[in-house]
Specification:
It is a single chain. The protein has helices spanning 41-55, 63-72, 80-101, 105-108, 128-140, 160-178, 194-202, 221-228, 244-252, 268-281, 294-306, 356-360; strands at residues 3-13, 16-25, 30-35, 116-125, 145-150, 183-187, 211-213, 235-237, 258-259, 285-286, 313-315, 331-333, 337-338, 341-343, 353-354, 373-374, 380-381. By secondary structure, it is an alpha/beta fold. The chain folds into 2 domains: 3-102, Enolase-like, domain 1 (2-Layer Sandwich), CATH 3.30.390.10; 107-349, TIM Barrel (Alpha-Beta Barrel). Helix 10 links the parallel strand 9 and strand 10 (285-286). The termini are far apart.
Length: 383
């Protein structure tokens, strides 16, 4: 079997682009992948175009060797653009291999260790009463782990000190209202400095939060090491990491307790399984990032089925969430929740089917930017 084509489909679905990739073979078997570098999709397509030049004619069953060739056959190795492209191709190759052998992808990864995948629900609002009401609705629907947040996350000027005082108060109210049984977290989207993040943690009683996601930027492991000494709240970080090497100091240094690995950015299944094993050796649980479309969700479900150290998978399907990312008619078959869990599929490959006529007729790529936030003094800050 040989690879005959690699096609990129950047389309607008709901509120963002999805970059879907199809790898075809001369046996009529094809695979689907997805890239996760949101708002920079054209850069990823350029990398895929480069990889296509030497992947055409190659054996798609040699997934590990092709991963190494894509990574090592360039002088400027790694980086988020290249590994986002590699992720989409690697996921598609696993889909092909599973279909060719007649087994689900998780069987290629060692077999399923669980039959269902627990998720954490994303609950957002712009006032604490609505947030708590939405959280209760999600809990009634079956979620026992929730990430709480705010809907208006693109408002400038953004002042961290005022915001952390407000959100800390929201979290205290939420814990009091929702009780101690539910697992609660908050995502700060790396907006804070070390001092601001420490202040946020210190404003809440012990036990208010079960995890704090991405409180500061990831460029400096030493900064996370300093923050780790200032709070007892477990950290959930790594969604923007693009390789096992980027995870290295955070795993070895004990800087995180939950690894927010993104299979569509880290390098696909090939790299994700290595990170998961490394985390297992350090008693770090996987909490995969899953913000994209049905291909990302399916890949994440197969990965999560095969690892020993799973906490929860991110899920944007709580009762008050917009479902357009997942429910586009392009996807004729996708993973579906049963309560708050995904059942692990047993059909060959990923278990995702796409209407290619609808895909080619979908709303095309549009340029979009994540919010560009400023502070009151006019300076740029993180979103």
């Amino acid at each position: 079997m040989k690879i005959t084509a690699i096609q990129s489909y950047p389309i607008w679905v709901g509120d963002r682009n999805q970059l879907i990739v199809k790898v075809e073979t001369d046996k009529g078997i094809y695979g689907w992948g997805e890239s996760g570098l949101s708002s920079r999709e054209l850069a990823v397509i350029g990398a895929i175009d480069h990889y296509r030049q030497f992947l055409i004619g190659r054996d798609p069953m040699l997934v590990g060797a092709l991963w190494q060739e894509m990574y090592r056959s360039q002088y400027f190795e790694g980086g988020r653009v290249l590994t986002a492209a590699m992720s989409a191709i690697d996921i598609a190759l696993h889909d092909i291999k599973g279909k060719s052998l007649g087994v689900p992808v998780h069987q290629l990864l060692g077999g399923k260790q669980r039959t269902s995948i627990p998720t954490f629900g994303c609950v957002r609002a712009d006032d604490p009463d609505t947030l708590i009401a939405s959280a209760r609705k999600a809990m009634k629907a079956g979620w026992n782990c929730l990430r709480l947040g705010w809907k208006s996350d693109d408002v400038s000027p953004y002042e961290p000190r005022a915001h952390i005082a407000e959100i800390a108060h929201w979290m205290i109210q939420a814990r009091d209202a929702l009780g101690s049984a539910v697992m609660l977290g908050v995502d700060y989207h790396h907006r804070l400095s070390v001092a601001e993040a420490a202040s946020f943690c210190q404003k809440m009683p012990r036990g208010t939060l079960d995890f704090l996601e991405e409180p500061i930027r990831d460029e400096s492991p030493e900064a996370y090491e300093a923050l780790r000494r200032m709070t007892e709240i477990p950290f959930a970080i790594g969604e923007e990491f693009s390789s096992k090497w980027q995870f290295l100091p955070y795993i070895e240094g004990g800087h995180t307790q939950f690894a927010r690995l993104d299979i569509c950015n880290v390098g696909g299944f090939t790299e994700a399984m290595k990170v998961a094993g490394w985390c297992e050796a350090h008693y770090i649980d996987m909490m995969p990032h899953n913000p994209l479309g049905p291909i990302c969700t399916a890949a994440t479900v197969h990965f999560s089925a095969a690892v020993a150290n799973l906490s929860h998978v991110e899920c944007w399907e709580t009762p008050d969430e917009d479902m357009t990312r997942q429910e586009s008619p392009i996807f004729t078959k996708r993973m579906r929740l049963v309560g708050s869990t995904y059942l692990v599929p047993d059909e060959p490959g990923l278990g995702v089917e796409i209407d290619e006529t609808a895909l080619k007729a979908a709303e095309p790529f549009r340029f979009s930017e994540m919010p560009h936030l400023r502070r009151k003094d006019g300076s740029h800050t993180n979103w």
